[in-house]
Amino acid sequence: MKYRHSFHAGNFADVHKHVTLLALIAALQRKDKGFLYLETHAGRGLYDLHGADTHQGAEARLGIGALEAARCDSPQVRAYLDALARARGNANAPGAYAGSPVLAALSLRTQDRGVCCEIQAAECRALERALNIYPRMRAECIDGYRALNAQLPPPERRALVLIDPPYEEQADDLQRAGEAIGTALTRLANAVVALWYPIKDDRDLAPWLARMAAQLKAPALIAELWLHPRDARVGLNGSGLLIANPPYQLDAELAQWLPQLGAALGATRQGGTQVKWIAHEQH
Ligand SMILES: C[S@@+](CC[C@H](N)C(=O)[O-])C[C@H]1O[C@@H](n2cnc3c(N)ncnc32)[C@H](O)[C@@H]1O
May I ask the CATH class of domain 20-45+111-279? Predict the structure, then answer.
C-alpha cells in the first residue's frame, strides 16, 4: 500500500468529512446514553502542516486555509475550528492538523468510547502517540474491516462507524466499503454509518450509488460537495459522505450549513453541494 494521508491532510475533502463527523457526534450526543465510535481507516491522527510530510500543507491551503480565511459563521464550522484549535494546543505544535481520530477523541463524553483501526504499522504507531492523551479513544493496529465483526454490536447498543478507505483502487474500495456498511448494519441495525467517497467520475459513482440505494436496508442520505462541474476531469473533484441511519433532522441541518461550507471552500464558482436521500427517506 502506497497511500499516505499526510499529503491530503486538511484539504477540502478532509474539511468536509471532519465538519460532518463532528456534526454527527453532536447529534448522537443529544441523548445521554453513551455510544461506541468505531473508525475502520484511521490514519495517524495528527499531521504537521508545516512539515515535509504534508508538503508544508500544500493541499490544506485550499481546504482548512480557505475555510479559516472565509470566516464562515455556521455553528458546525465553528465547532470544527474550535476542536482543531484545541487539538493544536494539546499537541503543542502550531502546524498540527487533527485527523478524524483526534477530532472524535476530543468530543467523546465520559459515557462514550472509541476504537480507531489503522493497518500500516508506522501510521498506527503515530496514531497511538496521538491518542495517548485521550483515555476514551483506543488505537488498534488491525484491518478495520475485520473490526466491524469484532466490535459490533457493542454493549452500549449504540454506535457511530466511520469508514474512510484510501481508494487506491476506486472500484474495489467502493465495493468493499459498500459491503462493510451492510456488515455494520447486520451486526447493529441502528448503527449510524458514515462512508466517505471521492467524487471523480460520475460514470463510476452513479451506478455504485444506485446499487447502494437498492441494497441498503436502512434509511440513507448522501451529502456531497464538489468544486468543479461534475464532468470535469480533475484528480479529485469532490467529497461525498453516504450516511446510513442519519440522526433525526440531520438532513435539514446539512441543508443549512453544507452550502455555507461549500461557498467557503470555493464550490460556488463552478461546483456545488447536495444533500439527497437515497434510501428509505425519513420524515
Ligand atoms: C483516508 S486515510 C484516513 C484518514 C482519517 N480517517 C482522517 O480523516 O483523518 C485512510 C487510512 O486507512 C489505512 N488503511 C488502508 N486499508 C486499511 C484497512 N483495511 N484497515 C485499516 N486501515 C486501513 C491507510 O493506511 C490510511 O492511513
Answer: alpha beta
